[in-house]
């Protein structure tokens, strides 16, 4: 395997982060404000917002996990990851328009829940967002360490520290605005690298002949485009997770609140197409590795993509690949830092600790302190070197518990704080109990859980149809989906605990939220949300 020299790696990192830092100098201190630091005052145009959304979600995990999926599940693996991930972006905009309609000046989804239900619901959503963003930081720093240690003389921890400090250097001062500005340049670099590297790798491994010489290495499931194993272990759990990522992830919500309201739809459709094309293409690398008989170094799938680059690419393309991965993980890491800053600034300080009198100048410094703490946590947790694909599915499923209560709270005026809180807590408890095998999946318990999981499947399909086609179509599609899944799920879904627990998060939250809401006779006036959620004063 080829390795870059220490000097080359340091020059690449210094050049990349140096250029990113110089770009952020365009954001003058005279423009500093709490609202600008969090959402750029909701005034970002189409090009920058679409590029930022695409770059944020074409992250190192997308590349590594898509390749891992292609390697593990064969022909359909990369498609499952890239297609459902792209679909996640697509389904943001129908609900996003509703969020902006009821709260034009919102900074976080938890802030909207504070206006809708109160502090308890707000903190549940805020804490789940914090957990997800810290895990996302950990995943990105883990990918950075794996890349640097594989392609250079530097160690895993040294790579993590350099990248963490590099991202922090250009994000700390200007927050979200710096993230959006650098995303555009990083996306251009990633597209250029992908367009060159993927075809080169394909022809280096043997081109079309590879499908003839390597097909025998695939088992029956890996060779089947409609593989049941790939669908149930990868496709279906990730499909279930996509809507949760759309609602539970503050990095998406932040861009939703930052783009001009009239540009939400074209922005998210463009990002959908861009993400899908790039990630499916990069995921094919894992399938090519499977055909070529490549064995991940140390049995760690996180090493697969860097290992292929170090083995089959010439020095110049290794440098380009290095920039591709660094750009992808940096564009998401800076988004996570900006998201965490906005949550602490708005939901912890602005709506609670400030007691109705937030100081915008202090808010900005609280955001910067949050970024420092979050970076330290991300670096610390990255040393655990957890499997990236497993972490993504876990976080997405965990967020599934909040999706139904959040969405329904902004459409149904009978949902109250008790319905939101108890539905989320019950869904969390059941999800964790099944995911970590605390409940026995046998006998009547298993059948009951499978029945609720079918309801969860109906909720997922129903919400997606509702977002695009309206309430009636959504309810019909949800009912048909639940009935269609039932014959297979009854007695079999217990064998797929990842999928079962993911669907249970949706099913339990929907059942509990609906049951409590139906007992509530009071009606909520949605106009109150816009009155309660306002911009903070400029610093």
UniProtKB/TrEMBL annotation:
Subcellular location as annotated: Cell membrane
Gene3D superfamilies assigned: Sodium/glucose cotransporter
Catalytic activity: L-proline(in) + Na(+)(in) = L-proline(out) + Na(+)(out)
Keyword flag Transmembrane: yes
Assigned protein family: Belongs to the sodium:solute symporter (SSF) (TC 2.A.21) family.
Pfam family, one: SSF
Protein name: Sodium:proline symporter
Organism: Acidovorax bellezanensis
Segments passing through the bilayer: 6-25, 46-67, 73-93, 123-148, 154-173, 185-205, 235-252, 273-297, 309-329, 365-384, 390-412, 419-438, 444-466, 473-490, 496-518
Keywords, ordered alphabetically: Cell membrane, Ion transport, Membrane, Sodium, Sodium transport, Symport, Transmembrane, Transmembrane helix, Transport
Membrane topology: Multi-pass membrane protein
Taxonomic placement: Bacteria, Pseudomonadati, Pseudomonadota, Betaproteobacteria, Burkholderiales
Keyword field contains Signal: no
InterPro entries: Na/Glc_symporter_sf (IPR038377), Na/solute_symporter (IPR001734), Sodium:Solute_Symporter (IPR050277)
Predominant localisation class: membrane
